[in-house]
């Protein structure tokens, strides 16, 4: 039986935590963070004003600490800030450094390639080797290389529309696929609408996208029956806010329905690459028409790859051969540069190994078990979800089944206080949700420190 989070009947509680205790913890931890980082505050005062809103990229303001931590160095699964604090890093660049910061083979590849040139719009021997390695690791796709998974998803959708002659993409409510414009839709009273808060969005995205709930096979079928859907763009597991696992048989249904109705099935593994060698797709035997992965695929160097089956590649090449010459709408000048390929090759050959994933799996299982035990010990109405090396604690009962459940389970004030409290105890987790990653460099003692810190914080909140 699926259990969904219920509205809190007691207005004095947030996810089982008294509001006054939460406020006390939040205030105490914010003051503790600020008081312990005088060098950081001085550095920000001297150097941040050149940036819009004092940060190089706007979402750096979304970290829950009172002001951004300024990093001096990162190595393995540890960060050191300019005030000298060593921190166990379970965020790992929100998956960008999932295999640890600066893996030695990647750092060596960067040094070697830097002497050979950074970009020249032509393939290298590393590129040819990387193509073979991508196929060995992820499956028999015909590959292209981009700089970010956002670009890769955008290009994949363009191909799907070109070969089907259809304009709509089916996405799941609450999904994450980077900053592809078409996916910024949500469900309101059962209808697809633009997500609230979009800056500068002038187009009605409901004209090109249809949103349905994850795990709702009937809704997927109804959308496909219209004959308007060019592609289903999905993650194997919903990941960007309170992880949602697929129901048994859901991915089989997506595969069958997409084939029956002529839609392209695109699997975005940018986060679920944590699942194991080859990602969730290979671990669970999925059969997408197109495959996308970014973030950590080149060991932290900005890179993404997207591939298509031989059958789809044939259709694409036929359409491409018949178009007018000129701009295709795909590709950027610095994509597929030799530095990316050097790092891709090093990652695929020496970093993204079976042994690395085995270590990550053991550590993540230990972390998930420990966090769940702490939650049970404090009788908190929360739960833990794990997908390979990726672990989340969710401040609501579970399991969750779709994006609406995930949105309801999200508790920003509570999560922000826990994040800052963990950081003050030497543990960093992802800022946008309660995500933690175990890397090949993560030590079991680091995992145990995180569990102990989590226990200490829940003691203050609940006991």
Keywords for this entry:
463 residues; alpha/beta; 7-stranded mixed sheet; 18 strands; 16% strand; globular
What does this structure look like?
The protein starts with 12 loop residues before the first strand and ends with a helix. With 463 residues, it is α/β, with parallel strands linked by helices. Helix 4 packs across helix 10, helix 5 (149-164) packs across helix 9 (310-321) and helix 6 runs parallel beside helix 7. Helix content is 39%, strand content 16%.
Helix content: 25-40%
> Structural class given helices, strands, pairing?
alpha/beta
Strand arrangement, major sheet: 6-14-13-12-11-7-10
- State the end-to-end distance: 30 Å
Number of strands: 18
Largest sheet: 7 strands, mixed
Spans of at least 5 consecutive residues with low confidence: none
